Each structure stands twice: as C-alpha cells, then as structure tokens.
User: Fold this.
Amino acid sequence: MKAFFDLFPVIFFFLAFFFTQHDPAHAVAWASHVPLLSHVLAEAQASVPPKTPDQIAMLIATAVTMVASVIQLVFSWLKWRKIDAMLIVSFVLIIVLGGATLYFDNPDIIKYKPTGLYWIFALVLLLSQWFRGQNLIKTMMGKQMMLPESIWSVLNNVWVVFFISMGVVNIIVARLYSYSVWVNFKLFGTLGLTVVFVVAQGLLLSRYVIDDANPASNPPSDQDK
Assistant:
C-alpha cells in the first residue's frame, strides 16, 4: 500500500499519457471540460508548429501529475499529520518542472524530473556523511543488519553511485528515445533496475542480517572486534 501511495503521481502520469495517446478523441473531449487541462490543450493545439499526439499526451499527463501530487501531499497530511521529506522534494520538482513544461509549452522539460530527484538523493547521502558524519543508509537499515563501519561507508557510496547512474540513464533515454519509450522506462524500467540493485545488494549482505532468534550467529561489528 505504501509503495502504491509513493508512486501515485507516477501511475497517474502513465495512465493519462497512454489514455491520451491511444484514444486521443475521447481524451481531448474529456480534457476540454477540465479547467487546467482545457487550457493546456488549447495552448498545445494553437502552437506553431503543431504539437504531435505524443507531445499533447505528455502535456496532459504533466498537468494530471501535478494535480495528483497535490492530492498526495494533502492526503498524507490529513491521514498521518506528517509529510515525508522525500515526498516534499518530489512535489517541489513536479510543480517546478511541471509548471515550466506547461508555461513554455515544452513536453521535454518534465522528462528530467527523475534525474533531479535521483541526484538530490545522491547529494543528500554524500553531504550527510561528509559534513554531519551521519550515514543515512545505516540509519535506515541498521536495525535489520549489523555491518562493520567500513562496509556501511561503502554501502552509502554504492547508493550514491546508483542514484547518479540512474539519473544519467534517465537523461539518455529521454534524449534518444520516443516519449512512449521514456514513459515506459519511467514506470517499469526504473522500478526493474531498482529491484535488481536491491536484490543483488541483499544477496551480498545476507550474512550480516540480524537473526533475532539466534543472536550468537550474528557477525561482529567493528566495535566487537
């Protein structure tokens, strides 16, 4: 349920894009009755040169995602009385880049939102370790496994490299491939790469997982050596 909630704007982006792309007549008719979408549609139809169906689908999907992101933020506050920092960062990027996409009538701008998000994550991990001496990966995973400090440091850096690499891959896909390919990559490709990365990491670190039923089997940390 939490995973679905976190992906709420992404899922609506995907649905809006492919609904508009595969059934443009009904999508345009529907969008023309929604204030924000009707304005986006009018701007796209009046542009010179005319927007392609995929570009119109991207613009409509961007507007839908901005609304979905606002709903996500409000729902989080009403239900849990708090908003995760990651959710706020994602919201700001969607509103800023989505707003720029609609203002400049340029569907390419929103494609760089995932890169911005990944690189912000990488920067936060680096700055927390360098300037605050806080390993955020250890903070998140320290209750599940016991690692030597040297390995925690390596693991933090591995996540930094992963996020930077994902940002670069997103730019490559955004620049070299069609809108449809990028949208599919945004939802399925990034999810698949993340799952592979996490599973590979889990296999490598499985011997360090804390066994509550048999504490004696847990590996020693640096302090125990």
Remarks:
- DSSP finds ten helices and no strands in the chain.
- The longest helix spans residues 53-80.
- The chain has two domains: 1-107, 111-215.
- The chain has a mean pLDDT of 88.
